[in-house]
Write a structure and sequence with these properties.
31% of the residues lie in helices and 34% in strands. By secondary structure, the protein is an alpha/beta fold. About 17% of the residues have low confidence.
């Protein structure tokens, strides 16, 4: 009886190790000790392009309740899924003959602003890397 337990136990351990290695590869995680090589981080440019072309994806990547507000002649409103206006124009595509623009990117954040001088119109959006994926975490629009 004891002679059968050892090979069976060894076989089970081998199966568990093989399954663990296979799962690491399918999850895009390697056995490297370098943290930068173990976990893949979503590419910002790919995210940003999809965010502006796919409205369902956009809604899935907004952290509601969203910080910031929408200000217009009707007053101030906090952002919600119900009053969100889909973003379609990337900062690189803003008409700079009419708007002033500014943006700043780091490894973990992206901020963009655009405004029309002396009109009371401005917008600011902030994206943040959270758990290896990009999200919109702040939106401020003013149109007075």
């Amino acid at each position: 009886m004891k002679k059968r337990i050892l090979p069976t136990l060894l076989g089970l351990v081998t199966i568990v190790v093989v399954i663990s290695i296979t799962n690491c590869k399918s999850a895009n995680i390697t056995s490297s000790t370098d943290p930068d090589k173990r976990i893949s981080i979503e590419n910002f440019d790919d995210f940003y392009n999809r965010f502006h072309t796919d409205s369902l994806f956009q809604m899935s990547r907004i952290k509601f309740p969203l910080k910031g507000i929408k200000v217009d002649f009707e007053g101030e409103k906090k952002w919600s899924g119900k009053n969100w206006i889909t973003m379609k124009t990337k900062i690189q595509d803003v008409d700079t003959s009419e708007f002033s623009t500014e943006y700043q990117k780091t490894d973990k954040s992206f901020m963009e602003k655009f405004w029309i001088e002396d009109t009371g119109y401005s917008s600011e959006y902030r994206f943040k890397l959270i758990s290896r994926k990009w999200y919109l975490v702040y939106a401020n629009e003013q149109n007075l």
